């Protein structure tokens, strides 16, 4: 049985690989990475490293050859770029006749109005068309996505948001990685969809949790989108990233991440890590 993880040197992918190595023999694990030299540490531990670039389909055909179970970790970039990259990966999986595809998607992908959802909806549909057994891992939101806000609070700034009362199911990347590892290496996940979400919280609630961790009050500054953009610009956020950050706030405000689920418990035998524990880990990592 050969298992393959794409994007294995990325933040999520590297955590998935480390989790798998706790239970799967290294010689059963293969990683597909754009730059194999970045995975030399894995090669030294007995993991097979293959070059695979989602922008170059010919590399994926060879990367996926002989693979039984495949985890496609969604790429970064604009929706059009990602849709094309994912289409290349799905086509290569079909050519290689893999037996199972797990894919990291987004909350409620099929119906979501989230600006990131089109990529995931199209990719899920492409996987379904292959007829290959699948599992869609619909990840809600990484707690690590809030590191810049946490750093701002540590520097004395308020928690700034234009997300209103929108709720988010924050969880640590480690939790999402563990869930992906369970699905990729385990049985009983054929043709499944997992909505992976922590406890739903508002911006005020996560700021309160952060305040408890820090032992101080964390004020929340609710602003409109234009003001939020100005504040991000003044904070030194690169200009090209600001529309993306504003769209995130809009999507949260519209409720696109307010998807409650106990699927973490189904897969891990426990709920997602408590927000207070996750924030404590992140704060320790920053300081």
From TrEMBL:
The NmrA-like domain is annotated at 2-237
| Enzyme Commission numbers on file | 1.6.5.2
- GO MF annotations, alphabetized: NAD(P)H dehydrogenase (quinone) activity
Listed SUPFAM superfamilies: NAD(P)-binding Rossmann-fold domains
List, alphabetically, the Gene3D superfamilies matched.
Answer: NAD(P)-binding Rossmann-like Domain, UDP-galactose 4-epimerase, domain 1
Position of the signal peptide:
none
**Know the name of this protein?**
NAD(P)H dehydrogenase (Quinone)
Species lineage, top-down?
A: Bacteria, Bacillati, Bacillota, Bacilli, Bacillales
């Amino acid at each position: 049985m050969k298992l393959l993880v794409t994007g294995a040197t990325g933040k999520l992918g590297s955590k998935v690989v480390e989790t798998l190595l706790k239970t799967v023999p290294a010689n059963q694990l293969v990683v597909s990475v754009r730059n194999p030299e970045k995975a030399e540490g894995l090669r030294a531990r007995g993991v097979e490293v293959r070059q695979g670039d989602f922008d170059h389909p010919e590399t994926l055909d060879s990367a996926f050859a002989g693979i039984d179970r495949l985890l496609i970790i969604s790429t970064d970039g604009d929706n059009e770029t990602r849709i094309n990259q994912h289409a290349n990966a799905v086509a290569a999986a079909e050519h290689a006749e893999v037996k199972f595809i797990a894919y990291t998607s987004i909350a409620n992908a099929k119906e979501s109005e989230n600006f990131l959802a089109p990529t995931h909806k199209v990719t899920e549909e492409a996987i379904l068309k292959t007829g290959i057994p699948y599992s869609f891992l619909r990840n809600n939101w990484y707690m690590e996505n809030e590191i810049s806000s946490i750093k701002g609070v540590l520097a004395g700034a308020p928690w700034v948001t234009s997300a209103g009362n929108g709720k988010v199911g924050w969880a640590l990347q480690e939790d999402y990685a563990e869930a992906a590892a369970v699905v990729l290496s385990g049985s009983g996940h054929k043709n499944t969809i997992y909505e992976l979400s922590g406890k739903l919280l508002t911006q005020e609630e996560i700021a309160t949790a952060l305040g408890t961790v820090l032992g101080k009050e964390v004020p929340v500054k609710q602003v409109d989108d234009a003001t939020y953009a100005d504040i991000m610009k003044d904070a030194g956020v690169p200009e090209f990233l600001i529309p993306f950050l504003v769209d995130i706030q809009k999507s949260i405000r519209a409720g696109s991440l307010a998807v409650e689920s106990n699927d973490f418990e189904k897969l891990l035998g426990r709920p997602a890590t408590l927000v207070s524990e996750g924030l404590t880990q992140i704060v320790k990592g920053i300081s």
